[in-house]
Amino acid sequence: MEKDKKKPLFIHQPEYPGGPKELSRFIQTNLRYPASALEEGVEGTVLVDYDIDYQGKVVATRVLQGIGGGCDEEACRVVRLLKFDVPKNRGLKVLFHKKARIQFRKPVQKPAPQAPPPQQVQFQVNYTVIPAQKEASINEKPKETVFQYTIQL
Question: Fewer C-beta within 10 Å: the chain N or C terminus?
């Protein structure tokens, strides 16, 4: 039996440094939700088609499917920030076309943390003072003085 041979790639595709996970992480960290989209309550996915030149720069973007509210422009802005690694393609300057789906979801607003109510702490301290006894009065019971303090924090 003959071994199946892979067909050689004549044109090498550009790759984002770090792979697809890093690409999506870069997009999510640089994506800013437009204020007008927040006011209108716009959510959805923008489909952007973009061109990568032979140097790895994004040179053109087009919105194929938009949702409005400023999200389309923001998706194009973020895609234009991308830089790709492009291997040499036999001395040819090739223009690559790719698509990206960029999701816009309203950020979840967490309620402001409330300060816990102040806790009342109470200490009670008792002091007992016994005066020193004199040698002459051994049979007499000494007089005790008791002090009591309450401290509240």
Answer: N
